[in-house]
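Page header: ASSEMBLY MODEL / eight components / 2048 residues total.
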Amino acid sequence: MEKLRQLLEKVQRNDVSIDEALKLLKDLPYEDLGFAKVDHHRALRRGVPEVIFCQGKTPEQVVMIVERMMKKGTNIMGTRANAAVFEEVKKVAPQAVYYPEARIFAIKVEPVIKNKGVIAVVSAGTSDIPVAEEAAVTAELLGNKVERLYDVGVAGIHRLFMNIEVLKKAQVIVVVAGMEGALASVVAGLVDKPVIAVPTSVGYGANFSGLSALLTMLNSCAGGLTVVNIDNGFGAGFAAHQINKLGGQEDEASIP
Amino acid sequence: MEKLRQLLEKVQRNDVSIDEALKLLKDLPYEDLGFAKVDHHRALRRGVPEVIFCQGKTPEQVVMIVERMMKKGTNIMGTRANAAVFEEVKKVAPQAVYYPEARIFAIKVEPVIKNKGVIAVVSAGTSDIPVAEEAAVTAELLGNKVERLYDVGVAGIHRLFMNIEVLKKAQVIVVVAGMEGALASVVAGLVDKPVIAVPTSVGYGANFSGLSALLTMLNSCAGGLTVVNIDNGFGAGFAAHQINKLGGQEDEASIP
Amino acid sequence: MEKLRQLLEKVQRNDVSIDEALKLLKDLPYEDLGFAKVDHHRALRRGVPEVIFCQGKTPEQVVMIVERMMKKGTNIMGTRANAAVFEEVKKVAPQAVYYPEARIFAIKVEPVIKNKGVIAVVSAGTSDIPVAEEAAVTAELLGNKVERLYDVGVAGIHRLFMNIEVLKKAQVIVVVAGMEGALASVVAGLVDKPVIAVPTSVGYGANFSGLSALLTMLNSCAGGLTVVNIDNGFGAGFAAHQINKLGGQEDEASIP
Amino acid sequence: MEKLRQLLEKVQRNDVSIDEALKLLKDLPYEDLGFAKVDHHRALRRGVPEVIFCQGKTPEQVVMIVERMMKKGTNIMGTRANAAVFEEVKKVAPQAVYYPEARIFAIKVEPVIKNKGVIAVVSAGTSDIPVAEEAAVTAELLGNKVERLYDVGVAGIHRLFMNIEVLKKAQVIVVVAGMEGALASVVAGLVDKPVIAVPTSVGYGANFSGLSALLTMLNSCAGGLTVVNIDNGFGAGFAAHQINKLGGQEDEASIP
Amino acid sequence: MEKLRQLLEKVQRNDVSIDEALKLLKDLPYEDLGFAKVDHHRALRRGVPEVIFCQGKTPEQVVMIVERMMKKGTNIMGTRANAAVFEEVKKVAPQAVYYPEARIFAIKVEPVIKNKGVIAVVSAGTSDIPVAEEAAVTAELLGNKVERLYDVGVAGIHRLFMNIEVLKKAQVIVVVAGMEGALASVVAGLVDKPVIAVPTSVGYGANFSGLSALLTMLNSCAGGLTVVNIDNGFGAGFAAHQINKLGGQEDEASIP
Amino acid sequence: MEKLRQLLEKVQRNDVSIDEALKLLKDLPYEDLGFAKVDHHRALRRGVPEVIFCQGKTPEQVVMIVERMMKKGTNIMGTRANAAVFEEVKKVAPQAVYYPEARIFAIKVEPVIKNKGVIAVVSAGTSDIPVAEEAAVTAELLGNKVERLYDVGVAGIHRLFMNIEVLKKAQVIVVVAGMEGALASVVAGLVDKPVIAVPTSVGYGANFSGLSALLTMLNSCAGGLTVVNIDNGFGAGFAAHQINKLGGQEDEASIP
Amino acid sequence: MEKLRQLLEKVQRNDVSIDEALKLLKDLPYEDLGFAKVDHHRALRRGVPEVIFCQGKTPEQVVMIVERMMKKGTNIMGTRANAAVFEEVKKVAPQAVYYPEARIFAIKVEPVIKNKGVIAVVSAGTSDIPVAEEAAVTAELLGNKVERLYDVGVAGIHRLFMNIEVLKKAQVIVVVAGMEGALASVVAGLVDKPVIAVPTSVGYGANFSGLSALLTMLNSCAGGLTVVNIDNGFGAGFAAHQINKLGGQEDEASIP
Amino acid sequence: MEKLRQLLEKVQRNDVSIDEALKLLKDLPYEDLGFAKVDHHRALRRGVPEVIFCQGKTPEQVVMIVERMMKKGTNIMGTRANAAVFEEVKKVAPQAVYYPEARIFAIKVEPVIKNKGVIAVVSAGTSDIPVAEEAAVTAELLGNKVERLYDVGVAGIHRLFMNIEVLKKAQVIVVVAGMEGALASVVAGLVDKPVIAVPTSVGYGANFSGLSALLTMLNSCAGGLTVVNIDNGFGAGFAAHQINKLGGQEDEASIP
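Prediction written out in full:
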């Protein structure tokens, strides 16, 4: 906004004519007019990390982006990052932490404001765990308490009932399931809360790389179920965070 | 086999030469050689109706087929038959009965041998009932006891648990479900019996005329689940009958 | 729970033996054990209507369900209801109200607890309005304040910017778009809040009945975007309500 | 049930009040209430192996699961297991046996109850044999007699007719076929028994990884045909076992 | 070619210069240069009708095209023509004949040269007959002897064997089948002749308007099988004619 | 821009403080800042009609939009408009003209600036003509000279060569084709100019409502070919106009 | 037939009773009854090779099949055979020849009867050549004269016209094309002969592994075009041979 | 044309008869008649390179084609060329230049005529850059000025607005985007110029290898948008060049 203020001051001082001012105004970068990212006010976003999607990038490219971001002093997280990427990142950011199952690395510079509510992350099979962990770690890095409830697929549905307290306690629930993807419907049928479903590409045959789970979830009759892209654990964790935030945040004082 | 026996007798009596016999043998209709429908022995099939798929046929065409079949003296059933078709059929077969929800008419000429076991037909939503009824009535006409358990979809899964006795009592279970189709997985996860899943075309949007339910069912992790074509209630009822038959049949004496 | 309590009392009084009690316990309906719909406590759901999906049902069938529900004394809403259905419903429930664009009828018996936050419903083109209205009216009937922002598609994106205050004010945003479906991404890129995207089947050619908009929305890079089924305005309105509820509810006193 | 019995005894002895009992009852794990896996009574399942789906798991993960299962003393089988996995399993379970074509390993601890009937496994081409073997070995490990009839595809259909006795003898038939998948229809057209069709991903071009065979089988007009997922030999073998069991089991005495 | 000859004569007579001739040559319509339809020499095509695809045309449009064609004096056939179209055509061409099952009308002006060989048209179900008739009548109008073998689907495969003489006698075989489409493979596996497969859109569910039959036929392992578009009976009849022609034609004298 | 100028003048006159100005500036509607439709300067668009997509709108809705637009004094065109729509439009705009084959109505209020170049519209079959006319009439209403070349499909490719002068004369070519869609490739292979391909939904069977033509056109190896949506004649005509404009416009004086 | 003759002779001699004969007759292998491969009489097939589809088989498996076939004394060809397979085959069949572009090996034991007509194999791009060669070499090994016309795609369509004599000379034409696949339509539009189209999986993007070319070819309006599976050069060459055979065969004397 | 002239001279001199001339004329290669590539006159194409699509070709094959082209003295460019291909090309053409991100090599022999207008290449994400560079470098090698505007995806849409001058300056705009592909709609909604959209296969899950971006772009409501195949940067650059050429070319003198 500084440039805009300077321009207006020049108008006031008659240093520029109205016509010149109109012309200059049109040439001012969009951001200077204050429209960019309308409600991303810094205050509300204290500690929210910037995110790098590492898939399809070389370790060198990731390091370059990390270095650029570190200068801004924000927290950073990298998704779909393999061990090789982390090794390189660690060289420039020794405080970086790696979550191998989630394939995420995180660089913490400032504390994150905590949300009050709990996010439950539920998954169907062992092979869905990487996507579930991507959702869970994402939510944690964004300042949420997360409870994990894994391996409770429909074929062994009694295990879900045995752990129903986890669902009761949560504000938002992320359900991760491949193959038939029916778990999301079952969970959303049991609770009266926002449920975010993540289809995974786990399976074979007529699974068609996650299409079967995606369609199952989109067609669920259970109210309140919304869906993200196949294998998009990050997206689910991020959306769960945005919802959980509505339930209130801890006092700043809570930041260590 | 009679023609074949007569031919061999002629060979024995030297009424035909070997060469002539070889030639005649080749010209004998395939069926007379006993290969046709290898195990469709009449005895085992007592009362099993002949089936007419009425969809895409005019009432006149259906009546013509009914008349031809009635001459053989077997039971008859017509599937995908609307009321108009039944009206015409009744004119030539006054004993015909119509099951409007199942869209089936039946003409009973001889009694059917009863299977000992029970077939359960379970369905998810109100709109799945026509397909469920097609399965149930088909199974009944083939000589099976059927228990219906409707409107127990995943969104109201507790109703399934409240009626679990029906599943426990059955030898075979047919599960009919549209939309997400998850009910089949849930049922097959609860029991240790053959479960036949019927996806229905009920739904809208990314349901793609039953594709979503079909894929869900094919991808189920629950053991023992097999699938038939979308909306194919008849096929499911027929397959359930073939399986139920393995559990034994009532004495002939049981036939009224 | 009453039946369970009575049983325990009988055990205490030695009116039933332990073995008998175990057997009876197993035969108690599932619901009596208190597991059904785990957190659907009546108190929290005061005024939440029961829902009838009218598509594929005859007016007679809808009326029958309405009458059954009215006996429970809860609010009722019917979705995908055409004028003919409403005419019949009105005969048994004269207080019923019809929202023609949303294709919803509502029967209000008791007041609804109001959520504090606002839900914005944004739509791209004129033909998307029925689905947008289904979402908006659903959210209103569930006790939410709704702001509508229609006809702000990507081809006329400046109209979105001119009305950005609506987005700023909302707790949750529902975006309804057919054809290319890009509006959801643009909105989610501008705000830092939960955004629920509803693809519509509006369009022709390679739109494939909403598939193009669905895929666009699922593949959005904008964080916090989740998706419901094609044309599923009800689902979006319901999920938005569940999220908005987290932001707090008005005092009971607010209920007129 | 032991915990439940103990609780009731405490109620009887007035060691706990009714109110406390109600609260404790609610906290009892679901399984203790006897609902879990409703008819999986141990007696009926004597010898039925627990199953590990090895695809996508490291040898180490498989070994860990094997060790955990071995403690329960049940038989174990691993599907989609390559030789490397088996090498590791053998180290902790020297009695493990490997079926390389079926890609299955088995660890036998207790004898399996045998079913009386025979299961026929029929396959179309040489490349379908791994899936056919997965079905056949699965059925054998579950206690069934299996007859194999391989390489009888539609292009050489006379070989099927030459071996028609195998079909006549079987209680249930599993048909494995890729490419056009027509063999399943031909077999189901010849017999009057349950036929389970397994499409395989064998083929190229418009085969689309098994889609062509899957669709062919789902669309078969032959009565009694049901279908499992592409390449799901295990599922077919398991379902065939469940059906075959209905035909009766050998006396316990038959267990060596 | 006449214009070209006249031009060359002018060059010879020096009525036009070389340069002028080159320029004129370039302006000569393409057809006059003799390239159009390179081997469609009139002599070889004696009696071959011109074809009108009537689907999507109004009766008036069809009549207009018929009148234009009649001036050329060739035979005419109209495919996908309903009774209403034929009624109008008959008014301008009283000799027109209508084949209702094939939905074809024909106007015969000159005799057709007959091919020596026989074309067999085989179909699976009753509902495939319109497409089969389209193929058969097309082939007949093009001068071929046709033998029909209908209702010999895979579910009743013995009927095919009983009529195997029809296949033996034919030079080319057209197989028409919907649903699973397996009949084409079975026929091509029995004979050593060109087989043209026509998938039909008959069926429901996962038939996807003929896709299942199309894929089955494209994936057939039986040698010599080629495929035309779904429901394209005309294309199959036309291609069968072109192949049958290679086996020789009757003497001109054979033309009545 | 007037509001902005007034604001700056107030700043100059010290009628508002800098801080107030900054705040007011932020509240100015987006459009007033001059960003809306960045290069849609009125001068360049003289006579370009506003467009109404009538499909899915009632005649009443169309009339309402027409009346609103007529107040702005611009030309108007309505696409996908049937005769019923036009009848209603004519009542409020008697000067409206209807192009029945193109399904377009136009209301001309001011003259259109003419482009110098010619646009050729080429189509394959009779049934593609409505889409071709939509493209041609759209281009004409936008101020372009159009040459039509219809019925030159690949099956009669010599007719294309006979009329090659049309292709030579054009600046831009629109090719409209259904079924196999190969005509676009052939045309683009013959010329060195921008070619816009429009797949149509004309056809049946494996045409899948235009998908086959769409894929053919997207996969063309011929350089310079770009594609619009199935049946989108308007889009092709509009894009062709934008390209043709680059070749220069007639003097204003040319406007009658 | 020998066994059948012996049986009849025994009946004649009264060595077996009629009843025994009937029973034995039923047990006679199907082939002995003369039904197997109804018209594959040895005489007509002199020299026709047996075919091995090598894809997905190990060199060892191929060698095993080759050895078994060599004992029958027929010619052999292996398709989809890489160099490694050929190296192993050569060890057991030193006379084996390898066609690397066609990925075919051939072992010639007896001469092949030659067909009189010529088969033209036409292909669009350089990358289509392997499939074109598979078709061409297959046709040659089956006894046909083949003319190749490569690299005549639609983008350079004039090269096709320059070589039109090749099309004129042929009895049957095989057209191989990937990407848009339009070449098949163009060729079939130019000639009045059987044309077999082979879509190839060459391309990228919306080519979808050959789907675009497949759909183009199936939707061609050009008469007489039939299609085989994507990349199925062998199938096209085989079908072309069956068609070409109808045009007559050289005298036996022609066999060297 | 020389051969044609010589033939006409012979006719004039009576060295050949009219009949002979007609016959010879028919045998003249198509190209000699002047039809080949109708408007590819050398003069208009000065400097336009010949193009080699290197994907799927060995370095040796590419070198062979390069050598053949170099003899004609035209410029050459190779697309989809990896470094290994370039290494080999450089050995025979030392002046060859490699653009690694665009995967293009170029061999410049003669100067290219420059177009006056500017082409803007806009891309959404980092991973879309290779395709964007393929478009940009192609356009540059064809004689166009190119402005790049990368990383302006919809999630960060303000960066597009900040650089809107690039769009204003351009004659034609190429937009490259994967995932949701919405950027193309946004750009086309902002400008009134030809926009060519290139979907990329960047993404995962329900992106289906670029299908989601392709459908989004085809369904855009923004006028003037046309689309090329997934990842087809070359095609977009080429089409943009053809359009840009219409805006005028620099004087020959401008060629260095």
